[in-house]
Every structure is written in C-alpha cells, then in structure tokens.
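User: what does the whole thing look like in 3D?
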Amino acid sequence: MLFPTAVPDDLSLPAVDVDRTFGAEFVDDARRYERFFYVDWILAQIALLGTLWLYARRGGAFTRESSAGPIGTGMLLGMLGLGIAWLVGIPFRVAAHWWSRSHDQTDLSYLDWIVQDWTILGAEFLSICLALLIVMGLARWLGERWWLPGAAVFVAIAALFNFVAPYLDFTTKPLDDKVLLADAARYEDELGLASIPIRVEEVSKDTDQANAYAFGLGPSRRVVFWDTMLEEPFSKDEQRVVLAHELAHHSQNHLPEGIGWFALFAVPGAWILMRATRPRGGMGSPQAVPLTLLVVVVFQLVTTPLANVISRRMEAEADWKALQVTRDPAALEQLMVGFSETGLGDPDPPAWAQLVLGTHPALADRVAMARAWSFRDSP
Amino acid sequence: MAAVAEQRPIRLVVRDTELRRSRLTVFFRLFLAIPLFVWVTLRGIAAFVVAFVLWLAVLIEGTTPQSLHDFVAGYLRYATQVGAYVFLAADPYPWFRCQADYPVDLEIDPPVRQSRWTGFFRLVLALPALLLASALGGGLTNGSSGQSWSASSGGGDEYAVWYAFSSGGVAAVAAFLAWFAIIARGTEPRGLRDLTAFALNYAAQAGGYLLLLTPVYPTSDPKRAEPYSDLPEHPVRIVVTDDLERPRLTVLFRLLLAIPHFVWLLLWSVAAFFAAVAAWFAALATGRVPLALHRFLAAYTRYGTHLFAYVYVVGRRFPGFIGRAGSYGVDLEIDPPERQNRWTVLFRFFLAIPALLLASALGGVALVVGVLGWWYALARGRMPEGLRNLGASCLRYSAQSYAYLFLLTARYPFAAPVLERRAEPEPDPSPLALPGDAF
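Assistant: Here's the predicted 3D structure for the full assembly of 818 residues, as structure tokens:
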C-alpha cells in the first residue's frame, strides 16, 4: 500500500553524460563544493556519536542538578544531552556555514546564523521535553508495555502536526502570478485534486538557493514556493514543472504515506528503545535518558538509507507525474541544470553519499527520467 | 542612633530613624533640587578630572595623594547627600557643600595602596558594578544617574514613563511611591527608605571604585549592607539553602533549559488567574481564602520563585514543576490562610499596583543580577554570594507582591532588600496601620 509508484516498473533510465549536460567545469566545481560537506558531515557524525556515547555513560551524574521529579529530571538530562551535542557540533556547523558563504550559497551573516542556531536549539529543547514527557509518562504508568501506545502517540502527533502546520504558517503569502495560478488549476484537474492554495515564502534575503515544497493533510494541503524559485534564472516552464511536481506529492498522497512509513519505523524504534534502556531502569527512569539519546541517534543513522530510498521513490513518482501533466521534459531537464547551478549541487554524487544523504534522486537521474519519458510517452 | 554598614572602605551612614518628612518640601522636591543638580554636575566634572589624575597616580605610585583623594571623596559624599534628598531618603536641604551631620552620609577610608593592574583596567572592571548601580539607581554618584545603562522599551508615553523610571532605576520608583505616601502621611515608609539607602550605598561603592577611592570591589550583598534595616514578620518568607556552586554546562544553557518551564508557567498562569478571581469572590464573601485555593495559588507563587531563581542563576538546580514547598534551594515559606479585611480584599488589585510597580523595577535588578551572574558563573563555576543574595531579595519582594495580589496574605510586601530577620529585631518605628505602610 505504501510502496506502489506511478513510475513504470520497466522504465529504464538512459545514461546521462553529466559533463555535457551540466558543463564539465561546473561539475568539477560542484563536486569540490559538495566534497567538503561530505567530510564535514562524516566528522560531525563521528563527533556526535562519540559525545553521546560518553554522555550515555556519564550523563546520569547530572541528575543531582535537578530538584524536579523523575520526568522533570529526565527532561533536564535530555536537554543537556542535546546541548552538549549542539556544542560539539558547532565547529562543523560553522565550517559548513563558512563554506556556503565563501561559495555565495547564503547571505546569512554569522550573527544571524548564530541567532538562528540558538532558536533551533530552543525548539529542539522544547520538542525533546514533549517527547520525554510522553515516553516517560507512559513508561511510568504502563511499565515496559509503553512502547506500543508510545509509538501510536508519536504517529498521532506527527499526523496532527502535518495537519495543523499549514494553519500555523504566518510567514508565507498567496501567489499572485495569474499565469501560474491558471496552470495550477489545470494540473489539479488532471491530477484529480481539489483546489490547493499556492503560497510564496520570502527567503531571497538569506539565500540564492531555490526550492518549493508541499505540506498539509486533507483540507490543510498547501504548496509553497520560495521566492527565489519565481525569479531568474528559472523560466516559466521550469516553474510549471516545479508546481506540477509539488501538486503530484498531494495527488499521490505522499504526505499521508510518509506518516504511514513513520509508523512502520516508530513501532520497532520504540521497542528497541524499551529493550535498550532496560538495564538503566527503563524509560521511566531519568538515568535512562542519556542512553536514549544515543539509541535514537544510532537508530536514525541506521534507518536513514532506507528512509532515503522511500523518499527518493516518492520524489521520482512526483517527477513522473509532473512530466505527464506538463508534457515538457526539456523544462524538467533545464530545471535540474538550474538547480545544480544555483545550489552548486553535484549532479552525480557518489553512491554512498546518495545512500545516506540523498532524499531526492540525483540530478543526473532526474534528467535521465525526463529523457526516458520523452522516448516513451512524447507524441 | 546611627546605623553603619559593615566596615568597608566606603560605608553609608543612616542617622535618620524617625522617617518624618516635610510635606511641603517633598511636594516640590524635584524643583527644589534643580540648583543641586547643577552644582553636583559641575562638581562631578571636576571630580572626574581629578580622578584621571588619581588614575595616573595609581599607575605611577600605586597609591593616591591624600588631598586629591579627599577632593573626590567630598564629591562622592555630596552626591550621596543630594541623591538621598532627591530620592526622599533624607529631609534637610543639603545646600552646596557636604553636611557633616547629614541624615544620610558616607564614611570613606583614607587612601590605601592599589594594584597598578586593577588600576589600569579600572574603567572596564567597574562596568558590571556600574550596570548594577544603574539598575538600582542610587542616582547621582555614578556619573550619569545611570541613564546610559538603562533599558528602554516601547514608544510614546509608555516610553517616557519607563525612561523616567529606568533612568533612576529602583530608587526612582521607590521615591515615586514614597512621594505619595509622604504627602498623605508625613512619614516615609521604612522599607522604601531602606531600599533607597541600599541603592545609594551601592552606587557610592561603585562610584568610589570607579573614581579610584578604593581598590575594594562593591558588594551588592544585602546581608552586608543592611544594618539600618530589618525584615519584619511576614507570612511570605524566602529561604535560601542553596550553595554557590554552579556547573558551567547548566549555566550556559540556563535560559534554554527553562523553556519547558516557561510553557508550563504560561499554562499555569491561566489557571492561576481564574483561581485568583475565585479566591477574591470567596474572600469577599467569607473574609478568608478557602484552603484549596490558597494552596493552589501558594504553589503557583512558589513555583514562579523557583523558576526565576533558576533563570537568574540565583538557584543552582533545575526546579520541579509543581512548586512543592521545601523542594528547592531558593524556596518560599507561605503561612496558612488568614482572616482578611473585606475592604482591602475589595480593592486588592488597586492596592497591589504600587507593590507590583516596585516588583517590576526590582525585576530589572534581578535581570541584571542574572546577566552578571551568568557571565561570572560561566567563568568561575560559582555565583558571587552578594549577587545571589541580592537576586534572592528581589525575588522575595516579587513573591510577597504576588502573594498580596493573590490574597495569600493581607500583609503588604516589605521593600528593603533584606533576606532574613535578625536574631533580636529592633522595634519597628512605624507600626503598621495601612497597607502602604509596610512597603
């Protein structure tokens, strides 16, 4: 139910000469640019795992810094663990930001970046407190049987968040491009969708990168364009492809499917957590919280390749549907070239990088899909 | 009988125990003080020029010449006397020279040897003390009445009022409230006078340190500067059992660690609002707050104290979420419900406004304590005792104010920055009759 795709099973992607398609010199630059992030990411993960391993062993000592009850103390330990991980990650994030700035990929000043970084950390603190409140509350109530209702609660929260998030969005404004809006209406008809609001998020002050995304469930569904996507160098045809791609996410129910996949990961994840924390007194005990952080991060790392496979499959399906409604493979191909240029993205990243970091098909693969559609379905 | 602060190189002497004030001069106090402002400013300019010479002397000789020291000390004493007059802590007009027997005065030790290093960096080293002095608003001794350090907010009239208060800090708010009390009764509430004296004392110490009269850093510890004041019996008391150690990691993330507490406080505040309204109706009807409501509101007030003690680094440990008595190192003791006068219950909100105004100004001091304490604790892994105690006394006043607002007590908060009662308290010179009396 979660894995079927509109992309034909027998579709074979033609080989793409990336140097010719994207420009040999540019591909070299993009590879050099991305290589830095790969190294930075690997080092950051090693540092994170090492830190959390140490914290899992010694973090329990911080219980004496709390006058709160077990759950409050667990929250403190959870927040401190995140805080330590954040501290350890600073050099890697600074390096990544410096690298982005030095390649004109972001205009965000270091001061704004620091403020943003602290804000994100604050939101993470609040999230982990909520998560620990649920898990520890259930564990103290139900004992070791907490994992099944616990997973269900998290899935319900994910669904609720997906549904409510669009209503809490006060940063975007409605799209006022009449041509694109008319195209949207046509695509919605073809995709069998009811009218979906198209909105614009202003990010051009901070970055030149372009993006768009779909979010919401049922009546709260939205498509959001970054304003950078609506400017040069992207043509109207390319913007149409993006629009069709995002609408396809809704028509193919990718967001509900994503929640379904989350449920499939959450249940075994919660069970593993229950088993792993048993020697520390289980999830009802604050002493287990430092170990919990390590287990969650390892679980995420281990399951990331599988999650990426699912994500890439959905993105490929959205591309395919976009080709079917726009009938413009040249625009998709040109869009990928444009993405690569604006984001300095490597069109054909190494297989391992695509495995652990690739949430979307490689740009070269997306170009290949556009060409495959031409061979197969163009009149 | 004069009360003198503990033997520090710069000490405030308070000889005025009767607290009587002339209504007429108090009514026109600010206008009467205009010539004093001009004169103290001129003397201040001269003192700063001489202080530069003192600075050179410290760098070269390691000590300051007696005559120049006396000149600057004279300015500091005069500015303190003018400050006391302006902020209503004293009644006689100070005229244009130091009065030997002025009711609020300074004692300043003769020059001593000073480290050339701390002398060289004196201006930088004095910044935290000046920041705190500005929040306390001892007024005229730290160069600019604290204006350059004051926070500001909003716009229009709101801005003007806030600026007027913030430029004088807590002392200005205390004087503002004392002005009404004196016009009505002819005496200044003891707590307000003691609070102003504390602010003047700290400002004098900070000014003396800045102007190189002493190498001793100012102390903000109410325990060391409170011989002229004592804490009267009160149903809401703060109890500090915490140590001064502060693990750097929990200090670094202190504000972020408090985020779940802020969310919880917000939710609890909504419930507390309705509980307070219910308590008000119940107290109006029966003259007493029902025990269940009293417990609920007491727990809320205690929780707020725990939380802000943690946020301002006054407390060490992460507080609990239910405001349980005895669960935190900076705790509140709240007596059981008592019978209350229905008239004061009826007008409780309006009666609480002056206390809340002062609590707000003291909240500014607590914020400065938090900022300075955060940096210090991050560097040294411990909180200075003086800052901790000052923060705790600000929290005590705030807790007493909210306890009064929430009908947990009929007793008005006591403004002097005192933490605990002395073993043998002196008789209170102004027995309580009206709520405003206690301050």
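In plain terms: The first helix of chain B runs from residue 23 to 27. The mean pLDDT of chain B is 87.
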